């Protein structure tokens, strides 16, 4: 594991109670940062995440809010920044695959208007909403934003039509935000391949096996692999902005 010294730093992680979001919140807290964890109101994983950190002697701030709702997203960011005192890093990580068992449901024939709206609203619009609400604080602290995109956003992956388009939007928004917020704030994104999180655990044994077989580095990408890259882009990488860094064990090459 990489180690970072984040004493005195603060961060807000959306979708921070599980998977990649929890790993990045946890890595930053262990490195000395004060972290606010956003989660869907009523999701028991929010309290669990805070309790897990507390058991390790780490403090974190609860920041519940459904980011598909513009008003909740704005209020959540404003209250989190107030509780943190200032904001150095916003990690726009909340997302949904929009798929349920049995997958796939995003073929041209079957993808619905409602699913398109959900995916664009949660995966893309939430990034815009939270970034806008955090912009003044991030400028004041010369901070950074890191968005969680996906390799799906660079091309097409079978049966993820609307999800891929939402993540392509995140990659483009990353560049536009980088322009809009420069020179004070750097804005980057990570684009994971298949990550062993709550989604992939639901995959069939055969799909899991073939994914590893097709990956040059011959293993799954883990949430903490992605967390290290997010923290690097957020707090190091001082001449990097507007970029989306692929982290997929080489599967996309
Ligand atoms: P995850 O399901 O554990 O994390 C997503 C989190 O976002 C969950 O905690 C969920 O409750 C939260 N969320 C969903 N809708 C929300 C809303 N409206 N408001 C607030 N929070 C909301 O899965 P993960 O793999 O850790 O996903 C994190 C990010 O990584 C997502 O943006 C996802 O698109 C991206 N990603 C995942 C993979 C993968 O293979 N798992 C690959 C590429 C990119």
UniProtKB/TrEMBL annotation:
Source organism's superkingdom?
A: Bacteria
Which SUPFAM superfamilies does the record match to this protein?
Answer: NAD(P)-binding Rossmann-fold domains
Q: Which Pfam families match?
A: adh_short
Please name the InterPro entries in this protein's record: NAD(P)-bd_dom_sf (IPR036291), Sc_DH/Rdtase_CS (IPR020904), SDR_fam (IPR002347)
Single GO MF annotation: oxidoreductase activity, acting on the CH-OH group of donors, NAD or NADP as acceptor
What CDD domains has UniProt attached to this entry? Answer: SDR_c
Gene Ontology biological process terms from the UniProt entry: fatty acid elongation
Q: Sorted alphabetically, which PROSITE patterns does this protein's record hold? A: ADH_SHORT
Q: Which family does it belong to?
A: Belongs to the short-chain dehydrogenases/reductases (SDR) family.
The protein's name is Oxidoreductase
């Amino acid at each position: 594991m990489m180690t970072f010294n984040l004493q005195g730093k603060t961060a807000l992680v959306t979708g921070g109670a599980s998977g990649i979001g929890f790993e990045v919140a946890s890595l930053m807290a262990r490195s000395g940062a004060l972290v606010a964890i956003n989660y869907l109101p009523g999701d028991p994983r929010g309290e669990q995440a805070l309790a897990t950190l507390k058991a390790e002697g780490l403090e974190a701030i609860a920041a519940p809010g459904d980011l598909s709702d513009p008003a909740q997203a704005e209020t959540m960011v404003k209250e989190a920044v107030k509780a943190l005192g200032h904001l150095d890093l916003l990690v726009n990580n909340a997302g949904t695959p929009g798929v349920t068992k049995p997958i796939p449901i995003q073929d041209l024939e079957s993808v619905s208007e409602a699913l398109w709206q959900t995916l664009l609203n949660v995966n893309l619009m939430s990034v815009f909403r939270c970034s806008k609400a955090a912009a003044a604080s991030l400028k004041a602290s010369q901070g950074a934003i890191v968005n969680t995109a996906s390799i799906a956003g660079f091309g097409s992956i079978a049966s993820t039509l609307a999800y891929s388009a939402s993540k392509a939007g995140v990659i483009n928004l990353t560049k536009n935000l980088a322009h809009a917020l420069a020179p004070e704030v750097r804005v980057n994104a990570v684009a994971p391949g298949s990550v062993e999180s709550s989604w992939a655990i639901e995959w069939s044994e055969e799909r899991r096996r073939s994914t590893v077989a097709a990956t040059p580095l011959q293993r799954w990408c883990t949430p903490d692999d992605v967390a290290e890259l997010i923290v690097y882009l957020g707090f190091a990488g001082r001449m990097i902005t507007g970029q989306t860094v692929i982290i997929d064990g080489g599967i996309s090459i």
